[in-house]
């Protein structure tokens, strides 16, 4: 029987995940956490074979997102980590794999895909949601484990956008034209395979660009 720990700040999500995970009869949920702080305490006291964790669980002393993934990789290098997230895009996929996740599952597809993700990671394989595989195919991308790279100026623009500045305000602050800032924003989003401002801001927060 595989021992699974689940972490999500929404109790209703954890209930649903427990039902899905235990339905096969081969897995047992041995612990639940509502945030990064609870998760680290739970992992230190409860042995498990697989961790299923949300990507965004703000509010604790310990950071979530990529910082949490990096910490888990350092402290539990052999523990397979399945990331369940609503930020299902190629940028999150690449960066999550680069920070130690073995699987990434879109929240909207978690009920259908979680069992497959668990089977994959216990065999030492990686797993990505079908919607992400389709994005990778459409983008004609290469190695999905490589984190996307932004130039210094692109990163600066993304950080300021996520901090609440408009394109016009950024242009005035850095003494560049509005069209230049707009182009750098567009290039950054294309490089990250992100299509909406919401996903861009989520990426900036999870990448540590803004608090």
Question: What attributes characterize this protein structure?
Answer:
211 residues, alpha/beta, Arc Repressor Mutant, subunit A, six-stranded parallel β-sheet, EvgA-like
Give the arrangement of secondary structure elements:
Layout: E1 2-7, H1 11-23, E2 27-33, H2 36-45, E3 50-54, H3 65-75, E4 81-85, H4 90-98, E5 103-106, H5 110-122, E6 127-128, H6 130-139, H7 152-162, H8 167-174, H9 178-192, H10 197-206
Parallel strand pairs: 1-2, 1-3, 3-4, 4-5, 5-6
Helix pairs in contact: 1-5, 7-9, 7-10, 8-9
Q: How large a portion of the residues is in β-strands, by DSSP E?
A: 5-15%
Please describe the biggest sheet, giving its number of strands, its sense, and whether it closes into a barrel. Answer: 6 strands, parallel
Q: In which order are the strands of the major sheet placed?
A: 2-1-3-4-5-6
Number of individual domains:
2
CATH hierarchy, class of the largest domain: Alpha Beta
Q: What is the overall shape?
A: elongated
CATH topology of the largest domain: Rossmann fold
What order do the helices and strands follow?
A: EHEHEHEHEHEHHHHH
Specify the CATH homologous superfamily of the largest domain: Response regulator
Provide the residue-averaged pLDDT. Answer: 85
> Helix count, per DSSP?
10
- Uncertain regions: pLDDT < 50 for 5+ in a row? 141-146
Distance between the termini: 40 Å
- Number of beta strands: 6
The CATH architecture term of the largest domain is 3-Layer(aba) Sandwich
* Computed CA radius of gyration, to the nearest angstrom: 18 Å
Structure class: alpha/beta
Helix content: 40-55%
